[in-house]
Amino acid sequence: MTVTTELPQVLVIDDEMGPRESLRMLLKPNYRVHTADNVEAGLRILREKKPDAVISDIRMPGTSGIEGLRKIREIDPHVAVIMLTGFGALETAKEALRLGANDYISKPFDAREMREVISRNVERTRLHRTGVNAATEIKELNNRLLKELAQKERLASLGQASAEFVHDLGNPLTIVWGYVQLLAKKLEESEKENGAANQTSKELNIIEQNVRLCRELLTMWQSYGSVEASPHKPISVAQIVSEVVKGVSPMAVQNGVQLDCEICDDPCTLLGESVQITRAIQNVIINALQASAEKKGKVAVSCERKDFYVDVRVQDTGYGITPAQMAKIFDPYFTTKQGKSGTGLGLYITKKVLEDHNGSIKVDSTPQVGSTFTIRLPLLNNN
Ligand SMILES: Nc1ncnc2c1ncn2[C@@H]1O[C@H](COP(=O)(O)OP(=O)(O)OP(=O)(O)O)[C@@H](O)[C@H]1O
Ligand SMILES: [Mg+2]
């Protein structure tokens, strides 16, 4: 609430100098008084000064007080207007009240009565204005709350829709899973009959692994928000890298990128979650393939055991990363692949997963030459 220490303002409109100046003298100690000798001049002051009360003569040459009253109301519907009427002109006073005046005083006026009427009316305007301000504030607050509520509802329904989506996705995926198993079995039988393993069963194996990954990702999503994280188990990083590379190799072929892989003999065992580590490594390798596609470049993946940790290095000859981009690549939703289905979540997820496993990720890049991402993970002590 604003506290005004300034004097209230009163506007006096009267063509006769006598009453106008006597009102000024009378009100000066308690009010800032503005005067005008005709309606038009009065209206200008009204617009400019926003007085708390207007005292206007009814009978004036040019625009009359009644016409002036109508114009005053158009400019300020809430200012108190007191009409000065000629002695005994009760009918005119009534007419003025009907047209929106708040009070009237007959001329010649009594000083004490005049002070009382003005003080009452100034108070009325102020109360009205504070009320209007409060009402406006409440309205604004209401609008803001309604907007926030609508946004929250949208987010909630998005959450609900995603939950339903994840649930519904589970069904066809289970069917795909079943058929993949069936196909694998049939293939195995025909291989037994023919006595030779063929390439198709290897490809089917990769499909099977990736459908399993999808199922595990869905389960992970469904348990999102549950406090208990799934327990860490001994997992082989070397095996995960090899599986991820196998999984993405058709993508490399499609993009004309040469994909090389060098994995050490050690399993590189650590305590962790295999689904998480898989997606962390997958994101980095897919990025490298995407970056190298245009130049039909090379991606080299290596997995090398050091004393207490393992380094997974993904080196590409792609378009590289500028220093400005470098500062943002791990931020959620940062992507330079707009319109090409990039969400900008890949590296953010990777970094989060690695941190959960006490690991780290490092990047070296030269624009137009290529990039190297190095993932470092601590190994289980006793292997
Ligand atoms: N190997 C790379 N070479 C060049 N730029 C890269 C490389 N890896 C990441 N980037 C840059 O980092 C950005 C963020 O990568 P991130 O994996 O987080 O998202 P994205 O690949 O754009 O989208 P998404 O992973 O969701 O498909 C990329 O858009 C790209 O600009
Ligand atoms: Mg990515």
Describe this structure in words.
The protein is an alpha/beta fold and 383 residues long. 53% of the residues lie in helices and 19% in strands. Among the domains are: 9-109, 3-Layer(aba) Sandwich (Rossmann fold); 229-378, Heat Shock Protein 90 (2-Layer Sandwich). The chain has 10 helices and 12 strands. Helix 3 (65-75) links the parallel strand 3 and strand 4 (80-85). The protein is rod-shaped and about 125 Å long. It binds adenosine-5'-triphosphate and magnesium ion. Magnesium ion is lined by residues 283, 286-287, 346. Magnesium ion binds next to helix 8.
Present as ligands are: adenosine-5'-triphosphate, magnesium ion
At the fourth level of CATH, the homologous superfamily of the domain at 229-378 is Histidine kinase-like ATPase, C-terminal domain
Q: From the 3D structure, determine the CATH topology of the domain at 229-378.
A: Heat Shock Protein 90
Strand content: 15-25%
Shape: rod-shaped
Number of beta strands: 12
Counting helices, strands and paired strands, the structural category is alpha/beta
Distance between the termini: 71 Å
Placed side by side, the strands forming the largest sheet appear as 2-1-3-4-5
The SSE string, one letter per element, is EHEHEHEHEHHEHEEHEEHHEE
